[in-house]
Structures are given as C-alpha cells and as structure tokens.
Amino acid sequence: MSATQRRSHYQVTFAVLAVSVSAFALLQSLVVPVLAEIQADLHTSQTTVTWVLTAYLLSASVCTPIVGRVGDKVGKERMLVVALAALSVGSLIAALSTSIGPMIVGRVIQGVGGGVLPLSFGIIRDEFPAKKVPSAVGAVASLSAVGAGLGLVLAGPIVRALDYHWLFWFPMIITAGAAAATVVFVPESPVRTPGRISVLPAVLLSSWLVCLLLALSQGSDWGWTSATVVGLLVATVVLAGAWVWVENRSVSPLIDMRMMRLPAVWTTNLVALLVGFAMYGSFAFLPQLSQTPTAAGYGFGASVTESGLILLPSSVTMFLAGMYSARAARRIGPKAVVVTGSLIAALSMGMVAFVHDHPWQLAVANAVMGAGIGLIFACLSNLIVAAVPAEQTGVASGMNANIRTVGGSIGAAVMATIVTASVFPNGLPHESGYTRGFATLMVVMLVCAAVALKIPAVGRRVIEEHLVGEPEHPQLGMVAGGTLVGDKSE
C-alpha cells in the first residue's frame, strides 16, 4: 500500500486512536469515587482497596515507556493492538472479580495499556500529513486529560444506574472494539528503530519507578519516616543512578540520555511533572471538598454524582482548549501557550483555595482549570514530538507521560499531607487544610510558568513542517529550540 493510500485514511486512524486514548484515560479515574463501595462489596480493608489504584499506577508507569520503545522497534500498530488487548483483558478480569486479589491482577494487566498514548503520538507523526500533526497530537493529548476528568464525572451515574462492575465492562467493550478497528484500519508505521531491546535498562527503569511510586502512594499510610518508605526512597536514588549509568553505556539504550538532556526535552518534562502534580492533586481532593458535609462549616454534602457534575466544566474546557492550542501555537508559539496555560491554571487553584463557598464557584474554577491544563497538555505533546527524531517518538512521549504520572503521585501525596494535617475528631479535615493545599498547587503552577519560560522557542516552520521527517532532509535527526540539529550519520 502506498504512502498516499495510507494517508488517505488518516481521519479514520485518528478516530481509532481517539477512542483508544479516551478508554485508557477513563480507567485512570473511574474507580476513584467508588473505592468505598468496592471495599464493602469485596470485604476488604481500606488499605488493601487502595491497591486498585496503586497497582494500576505502578503498572502503567513501568509499561508506558517500555511499550513505547518496543513500538518504535517492532511496529507501533502491532504494539497498539497489544496495549488495547491488555486493557480489554484486564477490564474483563476486574469486571468478573468477586474478591480483591483478581481485581488487583486485572488492574495490573490494564496498566500495560499505558503504551496507548506514546504509540498514538508515534502513529500520528508517521502517518498523518505534516500540517495535520500538531492539531492531531494536541487533540489526542487533550483527550488523555479529559478522559481522566470525565471518569470522575461518569462514575456516579454508572454505579447508580447499574453497579461498579460496569466501570470495567464498558471500557472492556470499547477497547476490544478499538483493538479490532486497529487491525483493520490503522496502517503499520514504516519508521523503525534498528537494534535489539536492552533488558537491563528496562529492569532498572521498572525497579526505580516501582520503588518511587510505591513510597509516594503508601507514604501516608506507612509513615513518611518509616524504615520501609525511607528504604524505598534510597533504593529509588540508587537504582535510578544505575539506570542512567547503564543507559549512557548501552549500544542500544532503552531511553537515549542525550535526548533526555536536550533543552527542549528536559524543560518540557519538568513542566509535565509540575502539571501532573497540580492536576492530579486537584482531581484527588476536589471531590472530597464538595462531598464534605455542611456540618463541618464548609463543603456542600454533595453525592458522588453531584460532585462529578461540579467537575464536568473542566472536562469540557480542557477539550476545547486542547483543540484550540495548535492554532494558538502557530500564532504565538507553543512556549507562550504553555506559559499562558500555566498562569490560567494557577488562577484556578487560587480560586479554589480562597473562594469555595458555593458549588457554582467550584464549577467556575474547574472550567478555568480545564482551559489552562488543556492548553498545556496539547502543547507539551507537540513539543516532545518536535524535539526528537521520528524513531524515538514513542519512548520520548511515553517518558513524558510517565513523568506526568509521577508528578501526579507526588501531588496527591503532598496534598494528602497538607489537607489532613489538622482534622476534626470525626476525621474530617479543617477547611484551612484545603486552603493551604490549593494555595500550594497555585504556587506549583506559578513555578511551572517560570520553568516554561526556559523552553527553547520553536518556530512555526518547525511546528508545521518538521514534526514528521521530510524526504528531502533525511539526515536531520531532531528538532530542538527551533533549530534542526543532530546528524544521524555522526
């Protein structure tokens, strides 16, 4: 099949990718509002039921960059089918579970689907017309954020109309259909990275990510100064150092450390960390704030469904802003868009911190937050895709998504520590805890804006012309700071 024939179907390919990414993103947050119900139904403890989230987070963090790298080497379409199949099988196991063990196993298998996002970016870069790449990448990136927010909104109505098992049945049906559609409609990308896949870097990467995320996710329960948490953090530092050392000396590295040191890459990754910190910290505690009984002197006593509706505006504005971001990036540059989005998000966090007396105020703040986050996510993805050679798109975007997840884990842990520092005898946090917590998120987004100012400027020519390799310039290796650099012949 010729390149022209392949690209004539890019809109169908985009539809399949959009459904795939949305399903994965939904699974990130659908279970958050109903953990208490799962705990009661499966007759388990609160500590154990948190592994329904933790297991998924750990698995996705380990698998996302690895699956992206394998896709770069053996074929993105092939690995996309594998990732979607894992989501479907994992969802089936979770849907059929009658005890906590199989539920956690299902969530671990679902985590393999984390590779959907970097694989989608790689397929877009390889298959879409050059001028369509920025908007398509931006839309898919926005869907990944929108899906996470929408999961919090949809959980209540689904559980109320059916039961929590349908939080897995629906994604299973969707991802199985997307896997079949991928086989039929998504062409195999011709861009491959030669060489074998190194096992040791993959093991070391997985090990330090597991240690870090396990410490962050369980620190509040085990105690931040406990021997277990401190040991995990020390192991993280040691294993991460060993991983970098091995990657720098590997003939076929899993992640090219030279690529990670590019100004356009490390600054974008740092922004992703801070955005993940603020977004997931906010998503984790906004429902709790709205569900707090009015007897506490604040909160609205909202149900799961009602708190979801308060969050709905952020999903809408996030998607709309993501769709607009490519046009804004062409006009003022992606760097300016990321800075603007960070300031907008900081404003929204300040609104929640200091103005949360009525539900409509939280809804407005959420709408503002969605606009800011939507602008940032779409541009971050485009900056990463533009900053690396085509054959490293999967691993680079996978690592960026991974860093965002790590930031989210840190954000949720820090917010939990701040919000619960002072509580009533009944266990409810004082209102001041939420004020301090969201004020902290505001400061984080202001720091994010300052970091975004360090992102190298990327011109319109690079955005529109060099997100995919040009046949007349096969020697160009990567794009950084608006300048094409890196000769593959070197």
TrEMBL record:
PROSITE patterns: MFS (PS50850). Keywords: Cell membrane, Membrane, Transmembrane, Transmembrane helix, Transport. Pfam families: MFS_1. InterPro entries: MFS (IPR011701), MFS_dom (IPR020846), MFS_trans_sf (IPR036259). Residues 13-460 form the Major facilitator superfamily (MFS) profile domain. It is a multi-pass membrane protein. The keyword Cell membrane applies. Its main location: membrane. It is found in: Cell membrane. This is MFS transporter. It comes from Nocardioides panacihumi.
